[in-house]
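Regression test case RT-17, inverse folding.

Input:
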């Protein structure tokens, strides 16, 4: 372990999938404000759609998502029915029929829906919006419960991408996280989806899990590479049992320490590069010909709630309990409790619970943080000029990065910040220097590596 990185690795920082980050969204956000934002959208601009299904058949102990266990289908069926109404309610609030450039089903487990409910929901979406010819239509799935029928239906419905939470193939680790899925099970799901015409496959891998070792993770990467997913995300397990109570099932003593976590992250990254993947942003890898690689090479990589993306839309409409959306005017988050979310939709009220209107300063800092997270480099002075910020606005945040500069983790010149190869894993810490909300924050975040 690099002793310099070691000093920084345990500092808590947000993941910056948004700025301002979700803990700063205001409660009691007025529905009419969100309605106003939707009504004022530029109708010629493409939008992205995020649909959330919070149900899973089994609880993974590491999970940090908003999910509900559903042993029976009844609550899922009721949820699907309400989601259809939310699609109509939201489409009615828009100024015109708009075009979708990206659609993403997340969860939970979206494939917990029955094939027929997924079909009805996608028919509703297509009846209210057009899809751009090159639209990405993506769905998260679970190899443990994906049926051959559902894989076929996903293909028939025009999905272009599916992602799987693979995490780690070692059986001891899988038992400790309550997620048993042998490589053959994952391989079958991937094959079924590819045969159904879904061309893009994503895997998520995690380091820092209980009983995980460098060797087990490198073996996981090798098995992953044999299945050749187009994109691989490599996340550090965020152990936050004070927020995610299920994580209390994970014995603290079984978790690798900071040095071991860093060794695992490095070994997995090196193994992915050796298998022909290209490193993208902080924690993604993609095949050289993948759109994400091309976007990164062209400086067009973006970051949103799903992580790194090629999605250039300035509006993301979030549907379903707890989902987050973004418009050019601010963020909105839906009610997370499914009963309250459902009652709101049934009453014809957009189920918004929280929101945050953008200030000029938010937009400026969001762009600086996004470019740093995507490119590992940003000219904060130039971004400031674009947003008519005071000439020296970047001086204070850059001043707080002097220690990292002295440690060889980044270089600075007149407001331009560039992470060095050594400092790249700590880009979240550099981004945090530009976060005006962080100083007052009481929210607790995961560690930097
Ligand atoms: S990790 Fe995924 S599949 Fe597991 S409980 Fe959480 S949302 Fe469900």
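Golden output:
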């Amino acid at each position: 372990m690099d002793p310099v990185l070691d000093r920084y690795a345990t500092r808590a920082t947000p993941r910056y999938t948004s700025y301002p980050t979700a803990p700063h969204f205001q409660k009691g956000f007025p529905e009419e404000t969100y309605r106003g934002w939707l009504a004022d959208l530029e109708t010629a601009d493409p939008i992205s759609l995020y649909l959330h299904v919070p149900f899973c058949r089994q609880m993974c102990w590491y999970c940090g998502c908003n999910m509900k266990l559903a042993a029976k289908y009844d609550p899922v069926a009721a949820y699907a029915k309400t989601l259809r109404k939310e699609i109509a309610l939201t489409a009615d609030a828009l100024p015109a029929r708009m075009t979708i450039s990206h659609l993403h089903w997340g969860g939970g487990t979206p494939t917990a829906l029955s094939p027929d409910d997924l079909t009805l929901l996608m028919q509703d979406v297509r009846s209210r919006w057009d899809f751009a010819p090159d639209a990405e239509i993506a769905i998260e799935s679970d190899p443990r419960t994906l049926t051959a029928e559902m894989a076929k239906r996903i293909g028939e419905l025009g999905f272009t991408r599916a992602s799987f939470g693979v995490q780690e193939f070692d059986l001891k680790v899988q038992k400790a996280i309550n997620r048993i899925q042998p490589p053959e099970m994952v391989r079958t799901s991937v094959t079924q989806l590819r045969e159904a015409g879904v061309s893009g496959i994503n895997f998520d891998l995690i380091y820092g899990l209980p009983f995980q070792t460098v060797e087990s993770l490198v073996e996981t990467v090798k098995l992953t590479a044999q299945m050749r997913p187009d994109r691989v995300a490599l996340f550090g397990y965020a152990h936050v049992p004070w927020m995610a109570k299920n994580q209390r099932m994970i014995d603290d003593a079984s978790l690798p320490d900071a040095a071991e976590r860093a060794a695992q992250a490095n070994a997995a990254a090196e193994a992915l590069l050796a298998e022909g993947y290209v490193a993208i942003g902080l924690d993604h890898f993609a095949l050289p010909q993948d759109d994400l690689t091309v976007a990164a090479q062209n400086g067009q990589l973006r970051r949103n709630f799903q992580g790194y993306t090629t999605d250039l839309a300035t509006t993301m409409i979030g549907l379903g309990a707890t989902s987050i959306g973004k418009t050019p005017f601010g963020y909105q988050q839906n009610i997370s409790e499914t009963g309250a979310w459902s009652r709101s939709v049934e009453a014809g009220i957009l189920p918004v619970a929280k929101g945050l209107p953008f200030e000029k300063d938010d937009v400026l800092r969001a762009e600086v943080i996004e470019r740093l997270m995507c490119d590992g480099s940003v000219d904060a002075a130039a971004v400031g000029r674009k947003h008519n910020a005071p000439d020296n606005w970047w001086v204070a945040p850059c001043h707080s990065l002097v220690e990292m500069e002295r440690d060889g983790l980044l270089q600075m010149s007149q407001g331009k910040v560039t992470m060095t190869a050594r400092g790249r894993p700590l880009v979240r810490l550099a981004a945090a220097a530009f976060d005006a909300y962080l100083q007052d924050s009481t929210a607790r975040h995961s560690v930097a590596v």
